[in-house]
Amino acid sequence: MRTLLRGGRVIDPAGGFDGVADVLVTGDEITAVGPGLTPAPGTTVVDVTGLVVGPGFVDLHSHAQSIAGLRLQAMDGVTTALELEAGLMPLARAHAEAAAAGRPVNYGFSASWGAARARVLTGTEPDACVQTTMAVLGDPRWQRSSSPPELAAWLSLLDGELADGALGIGVLMGYAPYSAPAEFLAVARLAAHAGVPVYTHVRELAEVDPATPVDGSVEITLAAAETGAAMHHCHVNSTSGRHLERVLATLDRSRREGSRVTVEAYPYGAGSTAVGAAFIDPDRLRMKGLGPSSVVMLESGERVADEARLRDLRRADPGAACVLEFLDERVAADRALLHASLAFPDAVVASDAMPVTWPDGTRESTRWPLPPGGSTHPRTAGTFARALRLMVRETGAWTWLEAFRRCSHLPARVLGDVAPAARRKGRLDAGADADLVVLDPATITDSATYPDPTRPSAGVRHLFVAGVPVVADGELRPDALPGRALRGEPR
């Protein structure tokens, strides 16, 4: 199959090209880029005049690992959506189930620190399910520090997952905030030895909890400096809150000193997690200057009235999804913090997309459009289009070249050492993977809201995954499930 995209504004963030050109796709590969390409007989020609053509977005942080959730991400310009912060276990099962069901975009997983610890410390058997992982997060039994034999046991589990193709190690340190810092260093040493990144939801900051064993953002810089591991700071906007300036200065200093520290952010002032998470505890919310009313239950829409109600919810169903409002997007100073997190040099856009669920308990749907009543965070459907609207269209903080560098090229480079196949992503030149997004620069925008979180973004006109059209003329193709697994290189 050959496709010629004719006359678009082509962006290659790897080579720095920004100009009008044609793009020829042959099978799953880009085979030519240049002006006036002549198509061979049988080539499908798509006129993309006036549109922007670039490498599809690479999302390092997506919990929306279902056909339904990934279709929303495809409509947001994403061609590769990876579960790296939490990871899944066992990895072989996760890969097998995704391949059997099919996926509209590429997928891949890290080795799950939380699942490995839960298996050893509580005897809980992981089942490679995102929803089950969320339920485990509120279980205090796995949040304690490990004995030396326990530490050795779950490190061995992680090592086995790396051998099975994990894209690094995902660490939910914020969900076990008082576990021993020495354990985190042990994970970093394992990662450094294996040549893989560590993707961390950091523990609390010192300003929030003076009793924290170590400041969360400082911890990853210390681990990077001591072990040489590549450390990725997940959603710096949500874990830093109003202390963002200090955190970014800490990370910048670490990078200038030679450590391998990368950063991601998403353009929303509210996060989403399980209500039983350690940092949703009423006492810990108070440390952040928040309260129960900052918590909204995702499925019911209930805004929590008081501490007693929050404790009841945490006790009754610790895995129930909720929204935590950590910044007020109506306030200019808080909007400026979100802007600063995205504008930080080399920060990448990552969604932290959440699973889509329905009131009847359904956790997957192959229907398109999605059935009404779906519940998720709006970032699942709108992160990348919203970032482009805010940073390119409205403020001009990014050029289109910089936008594709942040959304495609830099996240793919995070994976380059662990998965050599990632080196063919995040670029648009001959030999690159045919993962492409074609968008309307005048209309690209998010449509999802907190009350209506499954509305697809607008402005993505075409999306190709491995050369297969997943979105054509602005419409998703329900028959297209060309997504492939991105795996770590065998060691």
Characterize the structure shown.
The protein folds into 2 domains: 2-54 and 428-476, Roll (Urease, subunit C, domain 1); 56-423, Metal-dependent hydrolases (TIM Barrel, Alpha-Beta Barrel). It is 32% helix and 20% strand. It has 14 helices and 21 strands. It has helices at residues 67-74, 91-101, 113-122, 130-137, 148-163, 181-194, 216-227, 236-240, 244-256, 282-287, 307-316, 332-343, 379-394, 400-414, and strands spanning 2-12, 17-26, 29-34, 44-47, 52-55, 57-59, 78-83, 106-109, 111-112, 169-171, 198-200, 231-233, 261-265, 270-274, 295-297, 321-325, 348-349, 436-439, 460-465, 468-472, 475-476. The strands form 4 sheets. Strands 1, 2, 3, 4, 5, 18, 19, 20 and 21 form a 9-stranded mixed β-sheet that branches. Strands 9-10-11-12-13-17 form a 6-stranded parallel β-sheet. Strand 6 (57-59), helix 1 (67-74) and strand 7 form a beta-alpha-beta unit. It is globular and about 65 Å long. The model has no long low-confidence stretch (mean pLDDT 95).
